[in-house]
Amino acid sequence: MAGPEENIALFDMDGTLCDFDKAMEESLEKIRSPEEEPYTGKPEEAPKHIKERKELIMSSRNWWSTMPKFQIGWDILEAAKEAGFKIHILTQGPRRNPSGWKGKKVWVDRNLGPDTDITMTRDKGLVYGKVLVDDYPEYIKRWLQWRERALVIMPAGKNNNEFKHPNVIRYDGTNLEEVKEAMKKAYERKISEEVKY
Ligand SMILES: [Mg+2]
């Protein structure tokens, strides 16, 4: 059984290892009417019919299990393995789509192997790791709440270009050396130095 001293790197899926945005954009495009302009605004401000289409798309297990890889997340994955970390997937289970939970597990089996550890949760802050790799600022802040000196690597995305935090390195495909260096230091650090009791 994994002890708390174990060097675990937690990896998010959507926007980290999987290209959710690209998959969604392509799927929406396929069902767009020829008379209709493509929707390019913020997802939360989308009109009702676009939101409903997205829900339909996300209700397919196959859609989740065939999602394309997001390369910058895979660069970080390689760096984490190289530093010696044990890889653990930490992903949010979709709120309304149980088939998404299944599809995500199938994706992990296909792309990382069926022996990969995986946690699907509605609260990432509950899960232990020495490093978190995640693109979403709200989950990052929640996770860091109890781990004030832990390291976070944040794959660049259009929703996090303004987020800054002293523990967070934003990786955009150009600063891999910085990521590798930080991973190495995190690996050598004692867990008691980063967890707040
Ligand atoms: Mg994400």
Percentage of β-strand residues? 5-15%
User: How many domains is the backbone divided into?
Assistant: 2
DSSP helix count?
7
Strand numbers in spatial order across the main sheet = 3-2-1-4-5-6
What's the overall average pLDDT, rounded? 92
Order of helices and strands: EHHHHEHEEHEEH
- Hetero compounds: magnesium ion
Number of strands: 6
Q: Class of the largest domain, according to the CATH hierarchy?
A: Alpha Beta
Q: Which structural class do the helices and strands define?
A: alpha/beta
> What does the overall shape look like?
globular
Helix content range? 25-40%
Overview of the molecule:
The chain has 7 helices and 6 strands. With 197 residues, it is of the alpha/beta class. It folds into 2 domains: 8-18 and 68-193, 3-Layer(aba) Sandwich (Rossmann fold), CATH 3.40.50.1000; 20-65, no CATH class. The chain has a 6-stranded parallel sheet with strand order 3-2-1-4-5-6, sandwiched between helices. The radius of gyration is 17 Å and the shape is globular. The structure holds magnesium ion. The site of magnesium ion has 7 residues, from loops.
A few lines on this structure:
The protein is an alpha/beta fold and 197 residues long. Helix content is 39%, strand content 14%. The site of magnesium ion has 7 residues, from loops.
